[in-house]
Amino acid sequence: MTRSIACLTVLLLISQGALAQDAQPTYSIRAHYKKGTTFTRLMNMKMDLKGTLTQQGATRPLAMIQSAEEQYDEKILEAQDGKETKISRTYTKSIEHQEMGGQKRSKNKPEHGLTIVWEIKPGRKIHVVSPEQLPEEVKKDLRDPDPNNWLPTKPVAVGHKWKLEGPRVAQAFGIEPGEFKSGTLEGHFVEVLQHKGIKAAKLAISVSIKAAMPKKNMVLTMTIKGHHYIDLNQQLHLEFKTKGKVVMESSRAATAFKMKVEGPMIMHISRKLEK
Question: Which CATH code fits 34-273?
């Protein structure tokens, strides 16, 4: 009897050791914002679109290249429970470019050169502190989707996969309920690695979204795939690189106007923390 108990004890210890060896470390792959954190964010986006345009019964080919570049310095003025509640942002660059019909045009967006201070209220409602007058389209840009919205809320191990569908995708990307049609997002925690000298989590992200833009009388369909890197030491979003396809469709029955263009899109977003 004693020998049997001893054998069982040894087997139990061995199994516990095996389980301990099999257990993988878990990581929080979300940003955790802190008061005083300051960083520079750069964004570049480009769409190469081709399709057709119909006006007054005549159809012709249409080709355009649209791109944007943006850079701003941001400081977290106040934070609570890892969420930013007051922010200061200075746009050093915010420019849109378009090439069509052999002509190139560039224009500064309204926020170009501005310093904006705002507070984030419950429900991610925006209260602008300064300047007093700010175009509505700029206020809407301040509601940029927080990548935390599409990331796991609890620590997870390498290999973890997750999926969002329907309204949760709209919420993740800050799409108004009345504009959202359908969407899915799939994520995969690929590995922990050194990314540009920083210990980071590498995530694979795949997104499909269809949304209507009533003010522009347009329907947008977008599918993208890419990688998202999280700084595991500072708990901040580090880099987001994606490629995909965009389809834009617009029509106005009253003027017999119809347009459909589609083509590849690339986007690169990076953040550099001020030390």
Answer: 2.30.230
